[in-house]
Amino acid sequence: MEGQIANILFYKPFLRICATSDRKAKTGIVLVGLTVLGALFSFPPVWASPTPAPEAKTSSAQVPLEGILFDRVEDTTVYFKTQAGSGDSSPEVRPMKTQISDLFYLGQISPEKGSPYFLMTGRPCTDCMDDKTVYALRPGTVKPSSFVFPGKILDPKNRSLLFESRAFFGKCLRGKGDVYVVFQKERVDKKKQLQASVYVAEAKTDSLSESLLERHLPSLQHTLRQVKKKSCKEIPGRNRLMLNKPLDLNPKNRDSDDDDRNEDDTEEKPSVSETP
Fold first, then answer.
1. How confident is the model over 8-41, as pLDDT tens digits?
2. I need a surface site. Which of 170, 179, 198, 245 has the fewest CB within 10 A?
3. Per-residue model confidence (pLDDT) at position 49
4. Considering just the CA atoms, what is the radius of gyration of the chain in Å?
5. Domain range holding 20?
6. CB-based burial of residue 194 (10 Å sphere; 0-12 exposed, 13-18 middle, 19+ buried)?
7. Whether residues 179 and 220 fall in one domain
8. What is the number of domains present in the chain?
9. By three-state DSSP, how is residue 220 classified?
10. How deeply is 117 buried, as exposed, middle or buried, from its count of CB atoms within 10 A (0-12, 13-18, 19+)?
11. Assign residue 127 a region: left if phi > 0, alpha if psi is -120 to 50, beta otherwise?
């Protein structure tokens, strides 16, 4: 564009100057051309600037993934809200309908980016003998993750200890972000002592990163110090009797077991009972 303007305003008049023999005409044409060019290039070349993009319109109801908070529970449905505290679920934070009864909110663990995981307790059925379970619910997902409720599980015959655990969530481990961590002991052989392990579910952007550690276990004392610093919270455990459900502490097997259970509604339901 600049070359075309210069060609019109300078080069063509220059050729006319060369063709004329009138000295005054030559001088006048040169002065006019220089004046026009000086005025032209004293302004910024707006024709070279890209057309500014229209300003993005952000809906007032749009909710950033990091800004979702727990709001309330109604029956088996969990409602969320934004950090602004509107109290109502917008279309971007739809209520999460579950099949979990007796829902109770514990807290949340958050990844570096993305929506948090909300920890809750509940039962997988209504008016049944199933034990309470810890659930991790995330807006936008279909199926929550589930974990064994912390505390002691006793043999109903002789009241011997079968399983013992303490569960925590928050910034509870060295070198980790927000986690749900369980320090647990399980009896795998009647003749041997309880086998210790640590279950860790770390909040990641895409999903929970689950692992069961049986060697080089994290320090429980460090986690308890984090509790005192209020950067980590413990879920109070409770004692109960195991009647007929074997424990599965492997996170990889838990989902397949749940699917099998849903397919067979006539299967005998496992149950627990509270100890006095």
1. 444 454 445 445 555 555 555 545 454 544 544 4
2. 245
3. 33
4. 35
5. 2-42
6. middle
7. yes
8. 2
9. helix
10. buried
11. left
Comparing 71-85, 91-105, 235-249, which segment has the lowest mean pLDDT?
235-249
Most distant CA atoms of the chain, gap in Å: 125
Determine the length of the chain. Answer: 276
**How far from the centroid of its chain's Cα atoms is residue 174's Cα?**
20
Same domain, 123 and 249: yes
Return the residue matching tokens 């008049």: 13
Residue 10 lies in a domain: yes
Report the C-alpha gap between 229 and 261 in whole angstroms.
41
CA distance 39 to 91: 56
Which residues sit opposite 146 in a β-bridge?
A: 135
b/e map of 158-183 (b: 16 or more CB within 10 Å)?
Answer: eeeebbbbbbbbbbbbeeeebbbbbb
Q: Is the pLDDT at 123 greater than 60, yes or no?
A: yes
| Contact indicator for 254, 146 with CB cutoff of 8 Å | yes
Phi, psi of 149, rounded to the nearest 5 degrees: -65, 135
35 within a domain of the structure (yes/no): yes
Higher pLDDT, 67 or 112: 112
Which of 47-56, 98-107, 238-247, 267-276 holds the top average pLDDT?
98-107
Is 170 inside a domain boundary? Answer: yes
Closest CA to 102 of 81, 80, 128, 82: 128
Greatest mean pLDDT among 55-69, 179-193, 197-211 lies in: 197-211
